[in-house]
Amino acid sequence: MNSEYKERAEIVAFNVCNHVIPMDQVPANLMEAYANLFNELLEDKDLKFAATWDALPPSASVLLPKEDFHGFYIANAWLQLSRVAQDIAELADSDEAIDENEYNDIFTRLSEASLKESAKKLKKARTDRALLNSIKAVIAG
Q1: Average pLDDT, 10 consecutive residues per value, the chain (141 residues)
Q2: Nearest-CA neighbor of 64 among 1, 128, 130, 125?
Q3: What global pTM score does this model have?
Q4: Which of 61, 84, 85, 134 would staple 56 via disulfide (CB 3.0–4.6 Å)?
Q5: Nearest Cα residue to 43 out of 79, 9, 15
Q6: What span, in angstroms and rounded, lies between the C-alpha atoms of 64 and 75?
Q7: Long-range contacts formed by 55-63: CB under 8 A, 24+ apart
């Protein structure tokens, strides 16, 4: 992966997130967490993203450049994780606190679910022009 790919995926992820959460108002510690998640999902050490991209029908993969889809997926994973993190933070003050292994399992499940959902949306966008236009609009910022 080259620096242009990473830069484009990062721009897309930021634009998509910014539609839901004003990214300029996110606290520094959350931005650090976001950056760590971005790097981890971009690296794709387990090759789940690569396998999902390769499994897309050609009629779906031609709708977006690979780096745009990668950024779209990463943003969706971060948004899902940030919602769950709020719940975890609330539990941290109670007797129901979640240990680190459980948190990592939650992260893995959420990122996998986000990847599946992102691929599903892209496949559906083949026949749903409004969905495709919406995806392209959030990607563009």
Answers
A1: 93 91 79 86 95 96 96 92 68 55 70 93 96 94 83
A2: 125
A3: 0.84
A4: 61
A5: 9
A6: 15
A7: 55/119, 56/119, 56/122, 56/123, 57/123, 57/126, 59/126, 60/119, 60/122, 60/123, 60/125, 60/126, 61/122, 63/122, 63/125, 63/126, 63/132
